[in-house]
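User: Quick one: structure for sequence A, then sequence B.

Assistant: Sequence A:
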Amino acid sequence: MKHTNENLQPMAHSASNRCFGCGPANATGLRLEFLLAEDGGVVTLPTVGSSFEGHPGYLHGGIIATLLDEAMSKSARARGLTTMTRKLEVEYLRPVPSGAPLRVEGRVVGSEGRKHWMEAAIRDAEGTVLAAAKGVFVEVKK
């Protein structure tokens, strides 16, 4: 990853969280750890292993979608919102390598009532966007 002078702060996760994307209690999940960026967006810096491949050497498209969905969901959580995905649109721009450092970013770009519009991107170590997504998330009662 390119070195930056960002001030990224860890986001807290529940120890008993079994979420496939971010749950520390899910032994077979991705166990993503998210950081809060100064602009209110979120960042995770995973290296996703070969057990999540589709084509050898590259992540499965469903895992790519999961990374993007998680980043958008956590950007809502960073604002104190509990949301669920209503619509997810993914652009697979370039193959996403397994076993390589990645940067996944998510942010809220608009809100109206219970509906929230999100964007996310996966970048390689050079900053090239490999996949991007837009989504609509709906706030749910806790």
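Sequence B:
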Amino acid sequence: MTFNRRSVLKTLAGAFVLPVFNPISNALSQTTSEWTTYEIVTEVNLESPKGFAETWIPLPLVLDTDYFKTLAIRSEASDPKAISQVYETPNRQARMLWTKWDKSADSHTVKVSMLISTRNRNQTFSTPNPAIKLSKGEQKFWTRGTHYLPVDGIVKSKSIEALAKLPNNASDIDKAKAIYNWVVDNTYRNASTRGCGQGDVKLMLETNNLGGKCADINAVFVALARSAGLPARDVYGIRVADSARGYKSLGKAGDITKAQHCRAEFYAAGYGWIPVDPADVRKVILEETGGLAVTDPRVVAIRDYLFGNWEMNWMAYNYDHDLSLPGSKLGKNGDIPFLMYPQAENTEGRFDSLDPDNFKYKITSRRIG
């Protein structure tokens, strides 16, 4: 993997830009029966004093995958002098729609429509292909520590604990499965956690407070995996449809303003990136039909399924951690742990991204093919 060390800026003029076309029917012709197509619309309407403001709206993955692809992106702003740009982070792990209004602006509304296609991920652990492996640079990148995802100290200790019963010659799959089970068994979903949590793994482990939501629980998996030398990453996104597997807690359609959800992946030589989601196991335990026992057949089934599989009623945004928002007047003090919610600032400061009722943003989803 070669990372582009320069940020990428693309100016939008209200037209679809990925690729350049307009009719939705053209996009649908690019999909097959395995793929499902959705239109996701994010609209931000800042009730802001006249003058300067800017917003950052998460966009889908920069690069297409074998389970997700972006067909088109279109934006429009109410003020003709507003400038909207697609900004990619220097390592291309995230992109966003960055919109700016100058001091003369009276209206601060921007809308971005995203056309995406998804298909379910189902990993089989058959004979590995030796050609499937990461480069040394990729291995280093995906096992590195970050501010919220350290790989030393207590994180290393817990990783060793999770792997303690494995033989020395355990495979990458065996190691990841042991960490996955440790996370499911030792964490819990805390309904009072704001948003999706912060993903501050060191704090969680040091305080022995392993409650949280998806960005917390799946971050524990990622940090422990990296500490064990397994490449791993969070995948930030949002639910876009109801679950077809019969779990009411694992889907959302229509108004998805509060349906953000983080998932995780690890890399196994011979197989590639493998999907997991221990956080959704804990979500089912807490929320499905008023709560379920760990031994309930529905929990056992989803626990087995979410090691190696994702139901793709979900849109992937990005993989990035510890982001700096371009142009933010807060500088490094305005860095965010991840980009899964719209962000905005005006002359009075940063809006609360976890308060869409007062921030005034809405995200909707509809299936179109």
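The chain has two domains: 8-119+318-367, 124-311. Residues 172-186 form the longest helix (15 residues).

User: Thanks, that's what I needed.
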